[in-house]
Amino acid sequence: MNARGASALTFGVAVALIAGVTLGNGGANVMPVFVDDFVRNGCG
User: Fold this and answer.
1) C-alpha pair distances (Å), 26 with each of 14, 32, 37, 38, 41
2) Strand locations in the chain, DSSP E?
3) Cα torsion at 17, 22, 27, 32 (round to 10°)?
4) What domain count does the chain have?
């Protein structure tokens, strides 16, 4: 795995943690926006 892949993975974990907290606080309708934004800008 190259450095960029590793940092993207770490960023993905951070996003997942933040999203999990948001989801736990009742932000379920916000989650798809986070995921879509991450997929479009982060992974894609």
Assistant:
1) 19, 13, 19, 20, 25
2) none
3) -30
4) 1
- 9 pLDDT more than 80: yes
Residue 35 placed within a domain: yes
Residue 44 identity (one-letter amino acid): G
Is 8 inside a domain boundary?
Answer: no
Q: pLDDT tens for residues 21-43?
A: 776 766 556 667 777 777 777 66
- The Cα–Cα gap between 36 and 10 comes to 18
Q: What is the DSSP letter of 25?
A: T
Q: Radius of gyration of the chain from Cα atoms?
A: 11
pLDDT at 43: 62
